[in-house]
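Following up on my earlier thread - several people asked me to post the actual chain instead of describing it. Fair enough. Here it is, all 175 residues.
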Amino acid sequence: EAGCDFFISKRRKVQNGFDFYMSLNQLTAGLGRELYRRFGGELKVSKRLFSQHHMTSRLLYRVTVLYRMGRFKPGDFILYEGKAFKVTGISKGSVYGLNLDSLRQVELEVKLVNRNAEKLKPVKAIISKVRPQLEVIHPSTFQSTPVLPKTSGSKHIPEKKVYVVVAGEKVWLTT
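Reply from S.P.:
Thanks for posting it. Predicted structure:
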């Protein structure tokens, strides 16, 4: 709004983040909703009667907004139900991801993903073979391992480094 007097009066470090004390309830709640819409996670908005305006007798409320980030963000790689996914987006109740086996977009329930998924960290691996199927040197066993999804590595060159995600004996190409 033009001429809006919105300010943060105090910022306090707490155990798992920060507490911000803001001057306008509507903007504070709107900020929480926008964070939740863009990044998913958890949002709780509550109001409590604080006072009464001395001239107009209007009830004044103090608003508390709790926003917690989800465990995963767009760009992360996760292992869910034995399959690897690249998280492409998060909304209120869904995690959108690219299934690295089929290379198809999928929609997963955010609560189940937060509860049951494991974050995978991309690691460098060396391409060992490109035909008939792309294979890389497994980062922990040092064995030549087929890369999922099963495709020929026509654009890849042996001995080049690529990023992969690993879960047990399975290896997925990240790009």
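The chain is about 15% helix and 50% strand. That should answer part of your original question.
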